[in-house]
Amino acid sequence: MATRCLVFLVGLLAGFHLWAAPMPMMDHGRMRMDMSGRMVMGQNTDRLPPGCRRISEEVEITVKAGHKYARPFPGTMFGYSDHEWRVEPCAKVTVTLVNEDQVRHQWMLHDLPEEVYPRGMFHLEVTGPGEVTGTFIAPAEDRTYLVHCDIPQHTEKGMKAQLVVGKGSGVLPGIPGISEPAVKYDAARPKGADLVDAAAGSETERDRNPFLSGMLVLGIVLAIVGAPYFLRWLGERFFGMTGRELNAYLFERIMALACQGIAVFRSLWQRLRPGSA
Amino acid sequence: MQRRGKIYGAVGILLFCAVLDVAADIPPPSVSEVGKSAKEPFCPPERPAEWRDAQKIDGVEIQEERVCLPDNPYAVAAFVKGTNNVSMPTLMKTRLAADSIIKRNDRDGDGDPDEIIIKLEVAELNGASPDTTEPVHTFAIAPGIRPAFWVFAPKVRGMATKDEHSTEANPLLRVPSPVIRVEQGDTVRIVLENTHYFPHTIHLHGVDHPFVDAKGEGNDGVPQTSEGFILPGGKRVYEITPRQPGTMIYHCHVQTHTHLAMGLIGMFVVEENRPDNWVQTFNVGAGKVRHPSRAVLERYDQEYDLQYQAVDKELHEIVQSSNDPRVIARRMNREYDLTDATEDYFLLNGRSFPYTLRESLIVVEPDQNVKLRMLNAQGELLAVHTHGHKATITHYDGIEVNPAAQITRDIFDMAPAQRLDLKLTTTNDGLHNYGPGIWVFHDHVERGITTDGMNPGGNISAIVYKSYLGADDVPKLQGIDLSRYFDTAFYRRQMPVWQDIDEWDSLGDPDARQAEAAESADGETRKRSPLRHLLLGLLLGFLAYILFTNRERGRELFCQYVLGRK
Question: Least enclosed by CB within 10 Å: which of A45, B142, B170, B381?
Fold first, then answer.
């Protein structure tokens, strides 16, 4: 403890004179931070996530971040040098984030098991130019995790990537160079409000019943299966007939009705047919 | 032959189905398109009530702030001491970056630091996202109203949202851009780290600053005359040693006609030099200054910063209309025409009524002197009226008026970018004050008391005497129930302003009953719809069974009547 305090004080003193010089990071539980704002959250080199018996592999990732990495993806403004990483379940992953801009950037991973990662997060943050390194152990399940920079509009304008653990769980939307965004903005449409309205419109469209809804099909199936029983019950209870007789009787009635309908239709047709008068 | 019978049967069934289904699918009477109303409490339990109390954190005296949503006192302590001097547990209770505010080097030995580094970032609120059509990093100015904003913000760390489950912006990222306070004679470096996707700069309007810095680089923030743009991902340091005190401004000078209105403007206060004078570097969200400077405390009991702002919703919608910065730039710089624009929303310290009542109340006691610093950051004239009080204008644009010539009045007219320092006295003498109460203050250019034309809204807030504060520091209002204004339906114009004004709703909506009936009918159809489908299916299935089991007889009949054979 005493040595840690000493290191802290020395670091603080050094900081006053050499502002940008690297300093030892102060340790606050699972969060480490230095006075230049360099941060590692959820650092984990040894605690195995649930379902992991041992570390499966050791992986080292270096990712560069900055405005210039947006260049290959027109319409974005910030970017990472890579947008996808693949690791085995239970891999020990050491990530170095190299920030080449002069502002903050982050490499943030969410939805990790909360038993091991406070708030389910592993997070690197550094103001450029500079770099920061941290380590975490990947969970045991096959899953695709979102990696992003959570500074307003950085995720939205290009700093979005995915970490595929094992076989992953699909591809996330809107990863530059990998997948299309979930929402497409119409370049010709002048207002966002219209876009929202369009979405609301499609919602009501979905609400409307399609020709064969689930309930309709269920009804048909139930009726076909249940019809003989229903006819028998109906016939014996009310008509003094067997089910088969009732069935034939109903058929005759329906046919008679249909024939009458056809007859009416035909006579009308003959009368109103052009030239018949 | 048999096959033909089957085909006729099938066609018949399908026709029958189609007729029935069309009948079932007549669309319900269209009710208004917008979503259901959502009511909010006056004071949501978002922040600990003990944050409102007067307290001392890390040796920093923090005045009480008796409103529903007070400032985080730990952040105030960090703003006063600097993130480099404040204790680590205090810093951890804020979302500030460790290098956000650096204070050091007491050059004159008077007990306060004279070298200050202030780091600012640019945050977009209610912006677009490729993942959702809803705005992200949300900040509501009134129930259900979330126009996009750009703001300068203290340099923060970690997530930009309130927490990992929320889309609401971190409380340090908000409108207005924070008030910055420095001491006269301090050497101040303002570091703008441009985290936004457009170029920006800072112009220190009214603050004593040299045209070029020590290195000969531009210091005036004007891209055409003093320096280039600060590009996305870039930064610039503005260096000043202001010799004169006063209430000034800082704002972006890139495409000023739109960037200023988008929110890149804040107050910049240079406090008079005094010994042991640790000033509160940021006042996030403006409003009450919880650690006033020495010079202010010599003459005043309290101090408030009041920033008036306005929003043309067509301008602020542009950034929500696309996720492509090139498209946003085209729409904002070339398609948007400010000379055809009108302002729709009117904000006091980033919010409109009724949200102003949660955080922008001026809470006073009798016989106090209160310093108000006002900035008109709107595009047009402002005329603030204080009910129950006549205040004295002590400073115009940061410069003191000769005390003998100071004017006491009840309307404070301000041109765009103008500042007024007011002395509000709560002495009940029939001139300065007419006694305790809940006295509103608001713009008297009447559109300013509306939210897109809906009144009450806009920049209405109140001077509240402590004796009129009730439980949970909610003012003891004596008029009508305010809950209707905390309903998103009100500002969507879906609710009569005078609904239920008396027992039989004599000024309610003439169509209200029909609309209600239509709504309930619509509700019932929706509820009944699955059951109807089931019944229809049962009927169809039964018919199909009968037709199918009697197909032999059907063919006989068919041959007999249609084809005339036995």
Answer: A45
